[in-house]
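Backbone-to-sequence.
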């Protein structure tokens, strides 16, 4: 499942092609993805201008001149391919291999910017909805989403308050979209390693009894922001490389400290530990039992 940095990289890749451009023609090649496409999907898009392309958690939000928002989610296997005169690019690949099989191009946008944007999704867990802008905050997919980890509001106080009294593991708490938006298995493991906190630690231990943040909460917030910023930066560089080469350069997987590194030496300076894999909530957790406490 793509996580926040990948979705943000996709957004940045699509932004120049979509923002300020009009949907000249839209092809919906099948009636559904994870859910049916909205009623009159093509008709409601064609002729509309994208006034802005934003992101909330793992959702892409294209504001339309009609007052509706085109809400898009990549699901498990979705990707966008942007084709223009100087070739194609697929923004936001990272460690998730993308299909290039044209049979899975389910929705195609022909934009007035002269580009063709294909949404490819072999497993069809992706999503496209049209929601009036005024109703977006109350939409069932949006209303319970927690704070944006890169937003100014997100800090140790907010995270500690969300973890106050929580008896679940820190890994589970950070994976909960109501606590913080957009983090998944990979970046939770990476952030906990940077903060030197064990994924098994009880979530409430980053807060005082009154819900105030302690030093652990401060370190954790810094680590979350840093790991996401680094990943987005790496995604950005892979985007640029894409146009010059075959797109295999600059992916963030080369920079993982613990994720998918079971049995390899810990990279924390001075630590002699070995990366261990355990299963939490049915998902693999990678961590160093020596320096993560
Ligand atoms: Zn270590």
């Amino acid at each position: 499942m793509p996580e926040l940095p990948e979705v943000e990289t996709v957004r940045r890749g699509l932004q120049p092609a979509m923002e300020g451009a009009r949907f000249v023609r839209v092809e919906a090649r099948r009636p559904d993805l994870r859910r049916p496409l909205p009623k009159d999907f093509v008709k409601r898009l064609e002729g509309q201008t994208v006034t802005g392309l934003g992101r909330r958690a793992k959702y892409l939000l294209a504001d339309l001149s009609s007052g509706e928002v085109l809400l898009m989610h990549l699901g498990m296997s979705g990707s966008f391919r942007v084709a223009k005169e100087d070739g194609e690019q697929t923004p936001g690949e990272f460690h998730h291999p993308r299909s290039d099989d044209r049979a899975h191009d389910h929705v195609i946008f022909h934009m007035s910017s002269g580009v063709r944007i294909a949404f490819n999704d072999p497993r069809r867990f992706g999503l496209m909805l049209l929601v009036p802008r005024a109703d977006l905050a109350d939409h069932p997919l949006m209303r319970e989403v927690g704070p944006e980890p890169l937003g100014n509001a997100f800090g140790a106080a907010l995270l500690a308050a969300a973890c106050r009294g929580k008896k679940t593991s820190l890994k589970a708490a950070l994976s909960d979209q109501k606590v913080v938006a957009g983090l998944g298995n990979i970046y939770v493991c990476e952030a906990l390693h940077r903060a030197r906190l064990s994924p098994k630690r009880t979530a409430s231990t980053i807060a005082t009894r009154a819900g105030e943040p302690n030093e652990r909460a401060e370190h954790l917030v810094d680590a979350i922001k840093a790991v996401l910023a680094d990943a987005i930066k790496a995604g950005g560089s892979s985007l640029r490389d894409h146009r010059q080469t075959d797109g295999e350069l600059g992916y963030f997987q080369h920079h993982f400290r613990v994720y998918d590194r079971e049995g390899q030496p810990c990279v924390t300076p001075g630590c002699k530990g070995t990366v261990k894999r355990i299963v939490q909530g049915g998902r693999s957790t990678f961590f160093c039992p020596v320096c993560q406490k």
